[in-house]
Write a sequence for this structure.
């Protein structure tokens, strides 16, 4: 670690069945994410809060704990239960399908993390639009390194750009990260509306998905990713993804190919917890056998 003093600390009772690594698994955008470090039993991340930036450290153990450094430290620790998924109440869905029952047996204790503001979530999701995962991780790393800010703390972390920082740059400047022009324009539009976007966080899932798609460049795929992985809506669905319908169908029926409409039909019995099933399948890494190129990702947004 470091001798840097953690100004704020917090501790919470660990749920009887809890998977720390699994709950936090999808928060990092690639293995070289400059804003987040995850290793066995702990996670460090740079966060924006209303009181200022902070480095937040989450740790597993007999209790769950958080420490934070920086002007926003107190507020960051208050956010920690959401990051840890402690405000989520997992349910058992295995009685609805034997494949889900087996996944729940293999991967118990997964909670839904809710890591922060709507704009911060969009900042992470937009680089994933229209491209393969490996490209998205490169775009994100370059975006944070070029337009973010290094924070003092026990580890080296970069704070992702704030809405003001994004608004201060042109679309051409953002494209220097490799992002497509549509992504850059969408990011700037979101930055201009950041405060209004954050007000959407506490709406119902249907209202959130409807209103966030008013933004140019934000479609059902982006809305679903944001609702599930950043706002912990247990019934969020992700449509417009090339591989997801195939993975869901393969996990639940053994079919290797599917469509969005068929995927939604398969997920219907799990309402209002469809995202829990999606996440279980993603966590298990279930994909059908590859029989050709991945196809065109350009419809995803």
């Amino acid at each position: 670690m470091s001798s840097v003093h953690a100004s704020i600390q917090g501790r919470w009772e660990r749920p009887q069945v809890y998977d720390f690594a699994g709950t936090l698994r999808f928060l990092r955008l690639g293995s070289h994410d400059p804003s987040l470090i995850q290793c066995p039993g702990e996670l460090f991340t740079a966060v924006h809060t209303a009181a200022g930036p902070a480095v937040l450290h989450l740790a597993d153990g007999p209790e769950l704990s958080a420490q934070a450094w920086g002007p926003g430290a107190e507020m960051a620790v208050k956010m920690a239960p959401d990051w840890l998924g402690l405000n989520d109440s997992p349910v058992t869905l295995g009685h609805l399908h034997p494949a889900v029952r087996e996944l729940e047996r293999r991967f118990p204790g997964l909670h839904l993390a809710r890591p922060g503001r709507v704009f911060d979530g969009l900042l992470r999701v937009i680089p994933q639009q229209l491209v393969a995962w490996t490209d998205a991780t490169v775009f994100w790393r370059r975006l944070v390194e070029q337009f973010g800010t290094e924070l003092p703390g026990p580890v080296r972390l970069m704070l992702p750009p704030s809405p003001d920082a994004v608004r201060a740059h042109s679309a051409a400047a953002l494209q220097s990260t490799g992002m497509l022009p549509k992504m850059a324009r969408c990011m700037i539009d979101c930055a201009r509306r950041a405060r209004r976007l954050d007000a959407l966080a506490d709406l119902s899932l249907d209202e959130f998905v409807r209103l966030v798609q008013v933004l140019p460049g934000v479609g059902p795929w982006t809305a679903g990713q944001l609702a599930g992985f950043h706002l912990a809506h247990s019934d969020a669905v992700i449509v417009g993804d090339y591989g997801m319908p195939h993975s869901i169908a393969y996990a639940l029926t053994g079919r290797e190919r599917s469509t969005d409409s068929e995927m939604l039909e398969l997920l219907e019995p799990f309402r209002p917890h469809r995202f829990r099933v999606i996440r279980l399948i993603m966590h298990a890494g279930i994909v059908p056998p590859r029989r050709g190129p991945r196809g065109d990702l350009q419809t995803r947004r």
Observations:
- The chain has a mean pLDDT of 94.
- DSSP finds 14 helices and seven strands in the chain.
- Residues 133-147 form the longest helix (15 residues).
